Amino acid sequence: MSALILGLPVGLLFGFSLQRGRFCMYTAFRDLMFVRDATLFRAYVLALLIQTAIIHLLAAGGLLEIGTLGFPWLAALLGGLIFGVGISLAGGCSSGTWYRVGEGMMGSWLAALGYGISVAAVFWGPLRPWVALLSAYEAPQGWRSLPGLTGLPPGIFLALFVAAGSLWLWRSPRPRVFTGWSWPRTGFTLGLIAALAWVASAATGRKYGLSITGPTGAWMRYITAGDAPNGDWGMWMLLGVPLGAFISAGWSGEFKWRAPDPRRMAMQLLGGLLMGVGAAAAGGCNIGHGLTGLGALSTASLLVVLSIMAGIWAGTRVFFMRR
């Protein structure tokens, strides 16, 4: 019951804010690389900085424990690349796909279905041995955190991390006019929600913040086998994302059942399948690594984010810019 009470409201807030801010990290990375528009990327950086500052202040005060992720570098590299190509085909990242489910976009429903199927196939099915092989290539333990990799004291690295991000936000060009919430409002709100997720999930014994991949696979296993292997907070949080987006879209008059042509829907299903394989192999997606893990100063998360960006670049070039 505590998982429901603490997880569902966070998911509702997350989904509502994603929809109001039109926030999708695939769009943020793609626009930054191909049209030099940093509007959504600025929102992402602001959310990351706010979450990072809050959770490390809480940890310094003994109020929160931030776990350390492993660094299976080969799985992070290849998984991130596959995920990046997948979200190019799906037309949205993991969180973007789930909030668009709540807007009535049928292509995103198919992408989410493919995502869940392939995550389950990697975690508990026929692809598990392949990922286990990739995960065997583990970097030295001292490289797991960015302060450890750089040799800087954690407090110094954290201060430099936040200062560099803040300086970039201050100096970057003024963004274009945007529909929905402004990028500062979106980034600020998502950063607070991401920090809240750490606190809410910690109250249930979970030492992590927002994540999409694990809960997606857990829901798929629960629906097909009646088993909830990862139980709980993350599953209820994920359920709240499309529900929160539905509330937001309905409130703003933006909800509408929409279906693209069959070819595009097939591409989105394929994209979802690739997303799940990549995210499960990498141990997380653009949220689990790009927001939560990077906020915890995980080296693996930084590698996954860079690999996702490379996959987006390759996927967009191959599938959409050669026509």
TrEMBL record:
Protein keywords? Cell inner membrane, Cell membrane, Membrane, Transmembrane, Transmembrane helix, Transport
Q: Does the keyword Ligase apply?
A: no
Pfam families of this UniProt entry? Sulf_transp
Keyword S-adenosyl-L-methionine included in the entry's annotation: no
Q: What is the protein's major site of localization?
A: membrane
Instruction: Indicate the family of this protein.
Output: Belongs to the TsuA/YedE (TC 9.B.102) family.
The protein depicted here goes by the name: YeeE/YedE family protein
What's the source species for this entry? Tectimicrobiota bacterium
